[in-house]
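Quick one:
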Amino acid sequence: MTDMRPANVIAADPKGLIRESYAIDGITMDECRSILIDWALSLPLGADTIAATQHLLAHHGAGRGDHPMTQLLTLALTQGSSPTRRGGRAGRIAGG
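Output:
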């Protein structure tokens, strides 16, 4: 069976976790949150999570603003990225 999803959506959700969340009738916000965490942890190191989130929203969330996963993905984009911690000496020196 051939996967008919666009390549950018397959790359953004290789395990199909987000796709499956949209297929579950009556899924709750808490269940979507758990799936979203699993999805984020399954992405390769250095993956562009913003671009992946945008692809998934465009593909799965279009016209489904009331779905909990759409709400979470939208929130992830609007919250921005959290600051990253610098390790070692540079992280301990003020202004560095």
